[in-house]
């Protein structure tokens, strides 16, 4: 977990007993300022289990550790993924993997989105997945230095927004399917016809090359997902997962990012093609 808003004159002797109430601590790193000898106001705590980390958020977020001083605690995920813009649109996943392997180390996967009307072209950006945070951070530094060129160009690089896993209890109630890799010829009517044989639908919403299929019954949604995933519709093999309900933080990020754009479909999401992050991040 990440712990913020720590009073500067507070140390491990107060943090450890408080956070141990949630479960056994594996590691605690309080960030220090070597000049003043005080802490920098934040720490990272690793627990021995995921449950303990979630319990620590419940117990200690907004906890008043000193009069008027409240801690801020949230789950912290090591980010292994970079967003890269300025990618030539004719490059394939294999081309990108090969090219970035030449200039960075520890690259394990490339996530690429194709243009809805032309599957041979990408959308001019991709995500690079590294084996660990250290490799991703080193790759980011190299690519941002301006000295490294990819296909003769300097690329734009940012940390990708981390994907926050929704609460399992919330996911257990989802009755909406996220269907991607749809051909341009697929209409909402075609989807309705294909999915309604599994149960009654509330509605179907298609956007670009993906769609949301809302069922009235959870069991019908799960059955449709299991039986339709990987099937062909209009010549394209579709991919289906349960849609993730939107989380508040993600909505706030999106609102800030597209204040001037038209409203997106936000009842549910999965990974609709991510938008470019703003040029500067805190």
UniProtKB/TrEMBL annotation:
<dbReference type="GO" id="GO:0003723">
    <property type="term" value="F:RNA binding"/>
</dbReference>
<dbReference type="InterPro" id="IPR034411">
    <property type="entry name" value="hnRNPR_RRM2"/>
</dbReference>
<feature type="domain" description="RRM">
    <location>
        <begin position="80"/>
        <end position="162"/>
    </location>
</feature>
<keyword id="KW-0677">Repeat</keyword>
<dbReference type="Pfam" id="PF00076">
    <property type="entry name" value="RRM_1"/>
</dbReference>
<feature type="compositionally biased region" description="Pro residues">
    <location>
        <begin position="271"/>
        <end position="282"/>
    </location>
</feature>
<feature type="domain" description="RRM">
    <location>
        <begin position="1"/>
        <end position="78"/>
    </location>
</feature>
<dbReference type="InterPro" id="IPR035979">
    <property type="entry name" value="RBD_domain_sf"/>
</dbReference>
<dbReference type="InterPro" id="IPR012677">
    <property type="entry name" value="Nucleotide-bd_a/b_plait_sf"/>
</dbReference>
<dbReference type="InterPro" id="IPR006535">
    <property type="entry name" value="HnRNP_R/Q_splicing_fac"/>
</dbReference>
<dbReference type="InterPro" id="IPR000504">
    <property type="entry name" value="RRM_dom"/>
</dbReference>
<protein>
    <submittedName>
        <fullName>HNRPR protein</fullName>
    </submittedName>
</protein>
<feature type="domain" description="RRM">
    <location>
        <begin position="175"/>
        <end position="245"/>
    </location>
</feature>
<keyword id="KW-0694">RNA-binding</keyword>
<dbReference type="GO" id="GO:0005737">
    <property type="term" value="C:cytoplasm"/>
</dbReference>
<feature type="region of interest" description="Disordered">
    <location>
        <begin position="245"/>
        <end position="282"/>
    </location>
</feature>
<keyword id="KW-0963">Cytoplasm</keyword>
């Amino acid at each position: 977990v990440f712990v913020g808003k720590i009073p500067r004159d507070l140390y491990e002797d107060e943090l450890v007993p408080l956070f141990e109430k949630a479960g056994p601590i594996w590691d605690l790193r309080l960030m220090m300022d070597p000049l003043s000898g005080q802490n920098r106001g934040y720490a990272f705590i690793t627990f021995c289990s995921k449950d303990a980390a979630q319990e620590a958020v419940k117990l200690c977020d907004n906890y008043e550790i000193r009069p008027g001083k409240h801690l801020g605690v949230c789950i912290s995920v090591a980010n292994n993924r970079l967003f890269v813009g300025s990618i030539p649109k004719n490059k394939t996943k294999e081309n990108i993997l090969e090219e970035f392997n030449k200039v960075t180390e520890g690259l394990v996967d490339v996530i690429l989105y194709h243009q809805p009307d032309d599957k041979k072209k990408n959308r001019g950006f991709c995500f690079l997945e590294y084996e660990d945070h250290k490799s991703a951070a080193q790759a980011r530094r190299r690519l941002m230095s301006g000295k490294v060129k990819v296909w003769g160009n300097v690329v734009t690089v940012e940390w990708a927004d981390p994907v926050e896993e929704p609460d399992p209890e919330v996911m257990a109630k989802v009755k909406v399917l996220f269907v991607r890799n749809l051909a341009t010829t697929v209409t909402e009517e075609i989807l309705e016809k294909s999915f309604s044989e599994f149960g009654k639908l509330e509605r179907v919403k298609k956007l670009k090359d993906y769609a949301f299929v809302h069922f009235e019954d959870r069991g019908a949604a799960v059955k449709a997902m299991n039986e339709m995933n990987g099937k062909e519709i209009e010549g394209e093999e579709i991919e289906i997962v349960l849609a993730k309900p939107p989380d508040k933080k993600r909505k706030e990020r999106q609102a800030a990012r597209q204040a001037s754009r038209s409203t997106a479909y936000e009842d549910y999401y999965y990974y609709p093609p991510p938008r470019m992050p703003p040029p500067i991040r805190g």
